[in-house]
Amino acid sequence: MFAQYPRWFKRCVLLSVLSLTCVTSLQAANVPQGVKLAAKQELVRGIGSEVPSLDPHKSEAMNASAVIRDLIEGLTSEDENGQLIPAVASHWQTDDNRTFIFHLRKDAVWSNGDPVTADDFVYSWRRLADPNTASPYGWYLEMTTLKNAAEVLKGDKKPETLGITALDKHTLKFELNESLPYFPKMLVHTSVKPVHQATLEKFGDKWTRPGNYVGNGAFLLKEWIVNERMVLVKNPKYMDADKVILDKVVYLPIENQVAEMNRFLSGEIDITYELPNEHYTRLARDFKESVTITPMLCSYYYGVRVDNPPFDDVRIRKALSYALDRDIIAQYIVRKGVDPAYYFTPDKTAGMAADLPEYATWSQEKRNQEAKRLLKEAGYDKNNPLKFELLYNTSENHKKIATAVRQLWKQTLGVHVSLINEEWKTFLDTRRFGVYQLTRSGWCGDYNEPSTFLTLLMSNNSSNDMRYKSQRYDDVVNRALQSTTEQERSLAYKEAEAILAEDMPIIPLYHYVNARLVKPRVGGYPMNNALDIAPSKSMYIKQM
Prior knowledge:
Signal peptide: 1-28
Protein name: Oligopeptide ABC transporter substrate-binding protein OppA
Subcellular location: Cell envelope
Oligomer: single chain
Number of domains: 2
Strand content: 15-25%
InterPro entries: Peptide/Ni-bd (IPR030678), SBP_5 (IPR039424), SBP_5_dom (IPR000914)
GO biological process, one term: peptide transport
Radius of gyration: 23 Å
């Protein structure tokens, strides 16, 4: 039975079948013996688009999460292999997977010297759930089945009724409505990280500015020039500061992947956020020591506003999905070894066991014929073409995919698609307010379990930009969340994926891999973390 536990389990004490207490050191830089360090320990990372917010309760962007992980520590984290490890929590225990007791490290302090206490987490979770915060990830608390989370989010109960209690300065108690064995995994997510109450009360929305920002992570926010750079420096008060090797981390927002690649090749950047799809073959050939491909729990798809005509007709949604040759998109447009997607949850997700939908087993020719039949039945053909807009955020990679998709739909169905491009912050607002027809979307797992994907399409999820509502789907996902066995849960997840293939509120295109350019001089870059948790504290610069 011990094989299911991570490597640090040998340093844990098993109290009973359901009660586990663990003590281990926080993951930080681990320099192999014989490796010489460079005198200058500064890392420059591409971050894609400009970071919308560094407030963990108001952020929903993946690139922001990367920076927030450098600035704030939560209760748990993951190591370079995706194994769960303690962070601010030194250990935790449970007897029933419904009540969890977490013990905090007594050497954890904020960057201003204040101790990190259980009350900080209570305040932070209440703020996350408070409707006045309007957090885009408030729904995440409901997915943990935390007591009263749903009622607080709706405004029916006060945040003080949440099932989180500070038993003393260094002990937290969580009360869940359901047995949830993977609850500690869910605490890795950015949204449940703590914030410093006094700082927020003093500065309000300006607390995330340099000079105001108080975190408990390995680095401090020194400088933030919007659309130019973000500079972080080592936090001397960090609880494991002696294990952090980097002195400075610079994040550069560069939306154009070709421009980012060129700045990497010129020596300005150590790690890119992405790499341009059309240059992948050349880069893999000429710079193979720098091209880094790692697994990723992410799905790329097009979301459909299912409550707006004509997309309230499932026949149209299915026709568009069937007519997309995903092999062309994966192999010739995206490349990098991505897998075509016919369901939402990536195959690499723990506990994933979805069956291919029937249309995925057909030839592309048969899919195209069925797409034409469905579209004509819905009242559209080449003589009366369907016309709509496809929204995507500024990115050369997204533009190339959208252009290819538009061409495939035009060739097969005679559909007329207008491509709409928006800058990242505007794009997020457009999706959130539902002012679109089809939109480029991506979803990455917040933890390694199918519910992190499938709960997104539930009716009560505020991040469900498609406005998809299905009582049948909600019931099946809830059944999975309440299941007491892995087998029951797996069967329910399989059924949920089948419902999505039937209703088609999203059009899956492919499952990501993480493709970046990483300088050989960078050590400690994680190669096996599918959640893309790559904290700067684990990296260092080698002497070359």
